[in-house]
Amino acid sequence: MFIFETIQLIEQLEQIILASEKVNGFDLHAINEIFRTMHTIKGSSAMMIFNNISTVSHSMEDIFYFLREENSENIEWPKLFDLVLEVVDYIKDEINKIKNGDDTATSPEKLLEELKNYLFSLKSQNKSTSIEQGKQTEEKTQNYIDPDKITPNHYQYAYKATIFFDEGCEMENIRAYTIIHNIKDMTDDYYFFPEDIMDNDDTCEQIRKEGFTIYLKTDKSYEEMHAFFMKTIFLRDLELKELENDDEFKRFSKTKEAEGSIVLASDPVKTPKLVDEEKVDNGKDRQVAATTQSFISVNVTKLDQLMDLVGEMVVAEAMVIQNPDLQGLELDNFHKAARQLNKITNVEKLTSNAEEILKFIDEKVSPDYDMLEQTGEQYDQDAHFVKTLTEDFATAASQIADSIESIVKSIEQVAATVEEANASSQEISSNASESTRALEEVAKTAQSQAEMAEKLMHLVEKFRV
Predict the structure, then answer these.
(1) End-to-end alpha-carbon separation of the chain, Å?
(2) Are residues 104 and 166 in the same domain?
(3) What was the pLDDT predicted at 145?
(4) Does 268 share its domain with 337?
(5) Which structural domain range is residue 69 located in?
(6) Does the predicted model carry a pTM greater than 0.70?
(7) Based on the domain organization, do 285 and 316 belong to the same domain?
(8) What is the distance between the alpha carbons of residues 122 and 77, in angstroms, rounded to a whole number?
(9) Which contacts qualify for 248-256: CB closer than 8 Å, 24 or more apart?
(10) φ and ψ of 219, to 5 deg
(11) Of 107, 140, 173, which residue is a domain's last?
């Protein structure tokens, strides 16, 4: 499966390269596609412990991540095209080695050095732009939380959503926080219960029993919000209700104001958006009380999106935690959030899970596959035997048919001979009858001659002296 998927991704990548060469550069769509392709190959090859492919893909991914996040103007396109093609050729060669069972321990140090130098050159040539943009971003969103700068917004709709996750999915508080993080893209007027999901792991049990409840105001329609919540991973049940008035919502708003709570401001960390949100029409009925989501088969598109999401989380975690601007700062809440994020993106845990999967494949799947392969070979041998037997039967039947045809011809010849013999017998019988009649006439003539001779003798005796 790894070989098949990687070959498909490389073929798609080659098509993107050919199309981009015609316009002498990569547009934003091509950059995003190449980034996602390299990211996917990096993750899958790391899981299969093909470290060279993973390292090269990671280096190329870093280049296109920079291109995607920075509005770079000074780009040496011919060199970049050459590097991408070198990476493609390298991965194709490694895949062929894997298919043929050859050694894949060849080090790609020269290629990695070229990629590293190109990225360094790219950053150097676009340094001023990056710094200026970074300063602007820092000025706009200097703090994660800024309650004094929050201005009230007047939204058109108010909703109450209660979410239940699948049993056994674990880390319900982290999954709930993910929903809240995504909600911030569409509204800043929201409240949720339990409130301390990031600081209190005991909220997992509360969410399992009572669900995770969210009150929010937004300009999104009921259908759009329903589609948004239905994309939640490990969603078991959803209860979404549009509030007819603000009475229930104002109760929470007043409580928050009395407590002097703060609202999360916009996130200053750049988080690449993977795909555009699709508007899904789930019908005009706004009175749906509960919706159950269950799957029998795996949707390949959603699985690809999930792999991209996990990879993006790993990249984002590394960028945030290892940010040099945060060195030496006392940020307790930040470190708590980082530890929670690390629970999801723990590479060692992912590696352990990958090893368990490989062990399961080696111990369970491979023997069954070998048995299936042996069964297929036996079927092939049986089919060959049946085919040979059938051909022998066909040859024998043909020979029998030829013999029967010869016998029929012989019978026809005997019949003709008998018929001719019968005709000859009739002619002989007719000739015999004529001969008999002739003999009878001869006999009569002889008797008549004898009688005449006897009379002549009597006459002669009369003349004797």
Answers:
(1) 148
(2) no
(3) 36
(4) no
(5) 2-140
(6) no
(7) no
(8) 11
(9) 248/160, 248/215, 249/158, 249/215, 249/217, 252/191, 252/215, 253/191, 256/191
(10) -95, 0
(11) 140
Same domain, 268 and 174: yes
* Rounded Cα–Cα distance for residues 427 and 430 (Å): 5
Please name the amino acid found at residue 51. N
Per-residue pLDDT tens over the stretch 342-376: 655 555 455 556 666 766 777 777 777 778 878 88
CA dist 39 and 208 (Å) reads: 34
- The residue written with tokens 């190959």 in the block is 41
Q: What is the DSSP string of 282-311?
A: --S------EE---SS--HHHHHHHHHHHH
Query: Residue 215: helix, strand or coil by DSSP?
Result: strand
Same domain membership, residue 284 and residue 238: yes
**Are 131 and 188 found together in one domain?**
no
DSSP one-letter code for 158: E
Does the residue 311 lie in any domain?
A: yes
Is 366 inside any structural domain? no
Number of independent structural domains in the chain: 3
Distance, CA of 310 to CA of 301 (rounded, Å): 14
292-341 pLDDT tens trace: 333 334 455 555 566 666 666 666 666 676 666 666 666 666 666 666 66
Nearest Cα to 239, choosing from 213, 205, 218?
213
Containing H/E element for 83? helix 77-100
For residues 176 and 210, give the distance between their C-alpha atoms in angstroms, rounded to a whole number: 13
Cis peptide before 194 (omega within 30 of 0): yes
Domain endpoint, select from 109, 124, 140:
140
- Considering the domain architecture, whether residues 151 and 269 belong to the same structural domain is answered as yes
Distance (Å, whole) CA 319 – CA 326: 11
Q: What is the CATH number of the domain that holds 105?
A: 1.20.120.160
* 91-107 pLDDT, tens digit each: 999 999 888 888 877 78
Alpha-carbon gap, residue 321 to 344, rounded angstroms = 14
- Same domain flag for 76 and 192: no
